[in-house]
Every structure is written in C-alpha cells, then in structure tokens.
Write a structure and sequence with these properties.
By secondary structure, the chain is an alpha/beta fold. The protein is built from 18 helices and 12 strands. About 60% of the residues lie in helices and about 10% in strands. It has a 5-stranded mixed sheet, covered by helices on one side. Strands 9-8-10-11-12 form a 5-stranded parallel sheet, with helices on both faces. About 30% of the residues are buried.
Length: about 575
C-alpha cells in the first residue's frame, strides 16, 4: 500500500472516530421522527440494529484493517441508515417522503465532506444512500398506478441533478485538498531550504567574522603598541587616522553580526540596574573629543522624577544610545547635542522611560524618516560618501528597542535638526534589584611571600597573534610559552604547570574547544588552570561551545590591551598590582 493510501486510511479512520457521536445523535433523531410519522415498534428495532453497525464500525476503524473490511463496514452503516428513510417514504405519507428525501441528501452531503479524501471509501458509503434515494420514487412510479407520474419524474430529475452536482463537488473538493497537500509539501520543502540557507548564512558570517577579526587583531594591537612609543606630531596624526579607521571597520563588523542575530531571532537580553546619571556622563565623556573638534557641545538633562537606577538591559541600552549620539555628532555641524531623560506616565498604559537625543544639524526630509530605519538605508544617497557608515545602526537600534518592549521614533525639520526618541518600559531598581556590593579588596601578601612571575601559555595558530599577546604582557615581567595548535598545547600541559592559558578556537590538528576539553578531563597539572578563550569566533553558538567545556572567560578579537591585561591579572591571582603600571 502506498504512503498516500495509508495517509487516506488514517484520515478516514480519524474522521469516523470523531463523528461517531454525531451519527448516533442523527440516528436517534431519525428514529423519533419515524415513530411520529408512523407509530410502531420498527423505529426502535432499527435504532438497535444501527447501534450494532456503529459498534462494528468502531471495531474496524480503531486499528489498521484490510481496506475491503472497512469498505464493507461503511456500506453496511449507510445501508442501515438509509433503510429507515425508505421506511419513512412508504409509511409516512407526503411528510415522510419529504423527510426521507431531505435526510438522504443530507446524509450524502455528510459522506462527501468527511470521506472525500478516499475515493473507494467515499463510493462505499455514498452508493447505498444514492440507491435508497433513487429506488423509492422508481418503485412508487412502477407499482402505484395512481401515482402522479409527472411528480415522480420531476423528483427523479431533481435527484439526478443533485447526484451530479454532489459528485462534481466531491471531485472538486478532492482536487482542492490534493492541491493543498501539494502546497503543504512545497511549503515544507521551502521551509527546509530556507533553514538550510539561514544555516549557510550563519556559517558564512561566522567564517567571515573570524577571518576579518584575525587581521583586525594585528592592526588594532599594532596601533595600541605604537601608542606606547615616542611619536612626533605627524606620526600621532597618522596613528589617529588608523585608530578611527579601525574603529569604523570593527563597528561595521559588529553591526553585521548584530543584524544577523536579529534576523535569526537569536538576540539575547538581560535585565539589570542601570545608573542613569553615570550612563549620561559616560556618553558625554566618550563623545566629547569628537564633538569638540566640530565645535559642538553635548548637554544632558535628567528630570527629577526619574529614578537613579532603572531596570533594563544595560548592554543594549548603551548600544542604542551610543548609535544615536554617534549619529548626532556625525551629522551635526553646529549647535548643541542634547540628551534628555524623562519618565512618561500616561493615564492609560504602562509608564515609559523616554530618552531623547536632539541635534541642530541639517535635518532629515519627511519622505526619508521611515526609510532611515531600514537596513542599509540613510537619509540621502550622498550620506555614505560625506559621513560614512553602513546604514545599519538605526535599523538595529529600532529592532533592539522593540524586542525590549519599546520603540525608537524620529522627527525632524529640515534645516533645524532632528530628534530621536527611545521609549522603553520603566521600572525603578530597588534594593532587591541592585547587585550585591563587591567585597573589600584583600590585602596583598608581603613581597617576600609572592611566588615567581606568572607564566602564560599562548595557543594560537597565527604567529602574529602570538607575538601580539607576548608584547602586551612583556611589560608585566611575565613569562610565556607558545603553542601553534591545540594538540601541542595539550602535550605542553602534560609536562609543566601554567598560571593561565590563552586559547584560540580554530586551529589545525586540534581546535581550542577540543584542547580545553582534553585539559579539563585529564588529572594533570593544568586541570584547574584558568583558561581564557581568545578568538575571532564570536557568535552565540561559539560562546556556548566554550562554556560547555569549562573556560573561565571569553575575549573577542581584536584584542583590547587593557581588557586583556586586566583579565589575565584577575585570573592569575596575586598579581593584580602590575595593572596600573602598563594600563
């Protein structure tokens, strides 16, 4: 039996089980009507026989049975049901004939609706009804000389027309459902294709992220190392250009990854207290140098009714506001940039936290206000050439705001400036929502009790990356050992103990995740050594893979020198004193 026939059998069986109560109800209604038309014992006896056929029907359709047995059960059930209507035709007078004809038509319609999926089951159930609909008028016509032949002819013509349209409707319904089934198969195929394409896109982004971050790591690290040297004014200007170009490239890379996470629905959020005043001061400090170069001022206003700390996602809030203020500084040439924070408590609806970023720039044409929130779109075609940017920042910011339960809107007047308003759910952070205070610093042991300088195992398949890390930690007086792949790192961990291990992810011979798993699994000198993942693979599933094997921290390339040194010093306990000397 083909899969299609098996599916049809299961559908018919499910329909029969589902409609059992309805069939018994209609049988009881028919028996009562027959008794009212012609009182006698036969309607009650008929109801008992019909109940037996339904019990057999339940037995046949409860489990897989031979098709001929199921067809016989359907035919018997239909024949017994129709027999009562034949009885009504001949014993109930004119009312009985009308009731019998209408009931048979309804019965055949019910068969069509419930059994259209299988032609053989449909025919097995509908043929007894059709015969019982045609036979009484013919018998009356032949056996009753005084019958109105014209009336019987009209009835037969009507029955024939009804049967024709019933068959046509059944075929149309079957065709429509077959088309729907085909559409469902096509939709499933398209869904799988889309999922495969999305997986391919995610893999592509992961590879691109890694391949771009690796050379970017060398560029950013070289810039950081150059800052430590003596430079003349021209060299400082050149270094500033390199720094700005590196920031733009890294921002573009992060935007692409954020956009892919949003489209895949994999962006994660957290809720934590955010110090509003500190956040405003941080924004003001961060963008003050750029604004000062353009003759702009940055002013912040926090209304008194705003709580000192609010509950929201700190990272995403900073990301949105960073983008808004960055755009304001970029597109405004004169005047002031104002950041206003207020609480909005409408009469109907929840209280909202409103953060508005206003500038006195050229403004945005009304026709472009909606378009600027689309990916890769900016106000005018010349904007990327004049100001740079990918056109993804506002699209990402609005999507983040909406996923956080808020929105990001804009209004603008050409020639006078723009105002972007971020609206988020407002919740003041109480003492229960604030994080526990950090413990007081523990007094450092005397100099004579300190152990030997920290020794770091640097595991990376790129020689430049290994060299960069060694240059960063060299001023601390620490030692290091280098490994080109995970297998070499595992072998080194057999022979000596390290204070901390920096582990890359994608490497030949053995990747970083497998190497970390092997080090943690063995009872060697480095089973409990802090392992810090240092990789250009920054997607969520990469971080999850690191977490599963027990790394102590994760740092993304390009390397932030201060963050790297702070993390190393924290993990290698007892050597935090050197941070201030090189940070």
């Amino acid at each position: 039996m083909s899969q299609c026939l098996r599916d049809d059998d299961e559908q018919v069986a499910a329909t029969r089980r589902r409609t059992l109560g309805l069939r018994l109800f209609m049988a009881g209604l028919g028996a009562v009507t027959a008794w009212l038309l012609h009182a006698g014992p036969w309607p009650a006896a008929w109801l008992g026989v019909y109940a037996i056929t339904q019990a057999a029907d339940v037995f046949v359709f409860r489990r897989p049975r031979a098709a001929w047995l199921r067809m016989a059960s359907l035919a018997a059930s239909s024949a017994v049901f129709s027999s009562l209507l034949v009885y009504d035709w001949f014993t109930g007078g004119e009312a009985g004939r009308v009731f019998a004809a209408v009931s048979l038509c309804c019965a055949m319609m019910g068969v069509t609706v419930t059994l259209y999926a299988s032609r053989r089951y449909f025919l097995a159930a509908v043929v007894p009804h059709a015969l019982c609909l045609v036979a009484p008028p013919l018998v009356t016509w032949v056996l009753t000389p005084r019958a109105d032949l014209r009336a019987m002819a009209v009835i037969l013509i009507g029955i024939a027309a009804y049967l024709f349209y019933l068959v046509t409707a059944a075929r149309a319904l079957n065709g429509a459902m077959a088309a729907l089934r085909t559409t469902g198969i096509d939709a499933e195929r398209l869904r799988r294709t889309a999922e495969a394409a999305n997986a391919a896109k995610s893999n592509f982004l992961a590879v691109i992220s890694h391949e771009i971050r690796t050379p970017m790591n060398a560029v950013v690290a070289a810039i950081a190392l150059l800052r430590r040297t003596r430079l003349d004014d021209d060299q400082k200007a050149h270094l500033l250009m390199l720094t700005e170009a590196g920031d733009v490239l890294l921002g573009l890379l992060n935007d692409v990854l954020d956009l892919s996470k949003l489209e895949a629905g994999k962006m994660t959020f957290e809720t934590a207290p955010v110090d509003v005043a500190a956040l405003m001061a941080n924004l003001q400090t961060l963008f003050w140098p750029q604004a000062q170069q353009k003759g702009l001022s940055i002013r912040t206003y926090i209304e008194p009714d705003v709580a000192p700390e609010v509950l929201t996602d700190p990272l995403r809030l900073r990301q949105i506001l960073f983008n808004l203020v960055s755009n304001a500084v970029k597109f405004a040439d004169t005047g002031a940039i104002r950041i206003r924070v207020r609480k909005h408590a409408p009469q109907i609806g929840a209280t909202r936290l409103i953060v508005m970023v206003e500038d006195e720039g050229a403004g945005i044409p009304a026709a472009d206000l909606d378009r600027i929130f689309q990916s890769f779109e900016q106000g005018e075609a010349a904007t990327p050439r004049h100001h740079g940017g990918s056109g993804m920042g506002l699209a990402i910011s609005r999507r983040l705001a909406r996923l956080m339960g808020g929105d990001l809107t804009a209004r603008s007047i050409e020639g006078r400036g723009s105002c972007f308003a971020l609206s988020l759910p407002y919740a003041a952070a109480d003492s229960a929502g604030r994080p526990a205070p950090l413990p007081e610093p523990v007094a450092r042991p005397p100099a004579q009790t300190k152990r030997a300088p920290v020794h770091v195992l640097i595991v990376d398949d790129h020689e430049v990356n290994r060299r960069i890390v060694s240059l960063f930690i060299e001023p601390l007086g620490w030692g290091w050992t280098m490994a080109e792949n995970g297998l070499e790192a595992v072998e080194l961990c057999h022979s000596r103990a390290f204070d901390v291990i920096l582990m890359d992810m994608q490497m030949p011979a053995m990747d970083g995740v497998s190497a970390t798993r092997a080090i943690r699994a063995e009872r060697g000198p480095n089973q409990a050594t802090p392992i810090i993942a240092l990789s250009g693979n920054v997607m969520d599933h990469h971080r999850a893979a690191w977490s599963e094997v027990g790394v102590d921290d994760f740092l993304a390339k390009p390397i932030d020198p201060e963050h790297l040194i702070t993390t190393l010093a924290y993990k290698a306990s007892g050597f935090t004193a050197a941070i201030s000397e090189v940070a």
